[in-house]
Amino acid sequence: MASVNKVILVGNCGRDPEVRYLPSGQAVANVSVATSSKRKDKNSGEMIEDTQWHRVTFYDRLAEIAGEYVKKGRPIYVEGRLKYGVYTDKTTGVEKNTVDIIATELQLLGGREGMGGPSGGGEEGGYSRPAAAPRAAAPAAQRPAAAAPAKGGFDDMDDDIPF
Question: Which residues of the chain are modeled with pLDDT < 50?
């Protein structure tokens, strides 16, 4: 049986990424991402906001991109997988559990503020590991001929539908 370990987060960065390089030369960037939800308290009727903090780790080129473009407070979209770990706290000697998100995709959200250049320059966009290129629509000459138009007010519509 196949299994799935996938996380999708849309939230705000809690701090600027910390980029470092492993002895192998591999880039690693860590950032915290806050996600919030609101609910109404049944007893008092007031709105309660619940914020969760997530530790996100980027590797390789994605880490370099995160280090360059992700900034504190900026909204981002992250896809990845969960990774659980355990460490021993140096001050108390107590074992503690950790949950990290190992990111495989990153999308910068929101406006272009802070992207450099006199007009805010830069591009908003998504960054991920290479994927297959989308298929282009077949040229008009290779498409099958459309059926004779029916009388329904659509006679003057363009036949070059992109899908």
Answer: 116-124, 128-150, 163
Structure tokens at 28: 């690693």
| The CATH number of the domain covering residues in 1-37+49-113 | 2.40.50.140
Query: What are the CB-based long-range contacts (under 8 Å, 24+) for 115-124?
Result: 115/69, 122/69
How far apart are alpha carbons 118 and 139 in whole angstroms? Answer: 40
Burial class (CB in 10 A: 0-12, 13-18, 19+), 147: exposed
Structure tokens at 45: 């009727």
Q: For 22-41, what is the HEC assignment?
A: CCCCCEEEEEEEEEEEEEEC
E strand or H helix at 7: strand 7-13
